[in-house]
Amino acid sequence: MAFVSRSHRDPNETYTFSSRPRPVENRPKYRGPPFEQMQSNYGNIMYDRRVVRGNSHGQHIIPTAAQTHPIEIQRQQEMRRRKRAREQFRTMTPEALQGRKHIEIQTELYLEELSNVIVATDTECQTDAFLDKPATPLFIPAKSGKDVDTQIEEGELFDFDLEVQPVLEVLVGKTIEQSLMEVMEEEELACLRAQQRAFNELRNNELAEVKRLQEQERRHSEEKERRIAQQREMLKKERETAEKIAARAYTQQYLADLLPAVFTSLRGHGYFYDPVEKDVETNFFPWLMNEVHKSLEKRYIARELLDTIIQEVAQRRLNTTC
Amino acid sequence: MLMAGGVTDPSRAPVAFGRRAVPQLFEELQQPDQDRRLRALNSLCDLMHDPERIQQTIRAGFLEQLKVLLEDEDPSVRTKTCELLLMLSCKYTASEALLSSSLLPPLSQLLDDSSSSCRRSVHRVMKQLSVWTSGASALLPLVPKLMLKLNEEEDEEALVLLLSTVSCCSRVDVLPALASDGVSLLGQKLSHPSPNIRREAAAAMMTLSVCEDGRQQVCEQALLPVLVGLLREDDIEVQIHAAGVIMYVVVITPGKLQCLDLDAIPVFLDLVSKKKEEEDRRRVLVMYSLRVLTALAEAPDGRRLLLEQLPLLVARSEATEEDENIRRAAQTAVRVITWTP
After folding, report:
1. pLDDT tens by residue, B137-149
2. Staple partner for B254: which of A69, B10, B58, B219, CB 3.0–4.6 Å?
3. Looking at beta carbons, which residues of chain B come within 8 Å of A202?
4. Predicted-complex ipTM score
């Protein structure tokens, strides 16, 4: 930068600076690397940030010839302090929270009028009347190509051998299917029957064995029963025989002295008698008693008679004496 | 065939498509015209191979109509109706429906029918019904009537069917057949010239002889010689069934004694020793014969004879025997023979 700047302290304690007029440089915002700083672009003064634009009212301009007394400085400082204190008194909106920003806006643009009446508009529409359309002309394509004709010969349209094949296949197929089904049915039945038969035979086999064993069991049990019955019979017979023997012995003993006892008792009852004695007793004694009776009767009668005579006599004597 | 039967086959009515087929044919059946009914029946018989159609028939309750048809004047209509019932009774659910819709009484009326083909069809239906347990139980009240028919029926096929019906029913309950003198009737049939009848009679006899009474009766009526005679036949089915009857009969003592009198042991030993068992039937015959020998070994005479033949049976009970049942039967036989008190 080729400029000359001169600055020196005035003896009146003011600082002056002067330099040759030069166009303002368009200073870039950020300082570039040291090498590039040598470049200098002349910028537009209208768009330079360093130039003050606009009303200068109320701007803080440092007076050029400022003889600042220390009192002035003090007073200014006082004013500044008071202003600050006044500002502090006034209640202001609190500071924005972290991450937020307070912005002043006007809501005029966003206001909406609310009303009960709904704004409605009537609209109508009408279609155009149909216009009669003329009939479309018949489209006859232009003739193109060659004219060709053909004749169908006998047997070309319908060939029996070809046509009959599917029909025949179906016929034969269905027949075979049905017959297969019938054959399978019969086979199945035959299979079932064979199985049944085999089962039956096995069953018969085992059943025969079972019957045989059953029969064997029955025979054995019958045999056992018979033997037990036999044994019981034998025991009974033995017991009977023993009882018989005992009875016989006892009766023998009993009858041994039965005979004399019988005779004694008979004799005692008078069944053995001497006939002469019996006769004498039966015949003689009653006659004798009778005779005795008679003779005694006679004596009694005589005594009675005597008694009567005596009594009569006594009576007569009594009667006569009185 | 699901195709238009009326066009291709004059003996069949045309069949409607899909679900309409069965109802429409049943409507045809109600027509007074005999011919149309027969044709409708033919078509129905064809349709009834399909289980779906059978279900449709049952669910729609068309079985009641068949009852009327069973009493129709035309024997061919009756026969065809029976064939239709045969198709139905091959399936279990259908046969249940048959039984519950009380089709049995008119069916049993048809047993006395004049036309033999009709009777044959009826017998076929009954045989098929008796395969199912519920059918066999339902047919039990008819068994006395069926036993009577045994003597009257001349037609061989009907007789065969009748016998197998009786044997199936008797598997459920033996008493009705025994009560109607079943053993003697069947005994007569054992000597019938036709092998089929002999086979079926022997099978029926086998079911009868499971019961104690049956066995007693078989012994009393001296049917064992006939049965042993049947053992010597060529037809293996006859042999099997005869062996089965004997197997049950020798469990009781009179049976054992009679069998030993008839000298049946060599016959059975012969059957047991045959080695060609590629067929299952022969295997069954061997099993039955082993059981007979086991039962016979309980009698002292039998045991004496069998002790001599013990090696043969021991060979059968070895682990080399493929069929487990035969091995077990042979082991039981050996055990019984060598048992000492």
Report:
1. 888 888 888 888 8
2. B219
3. 325
4. 0.77
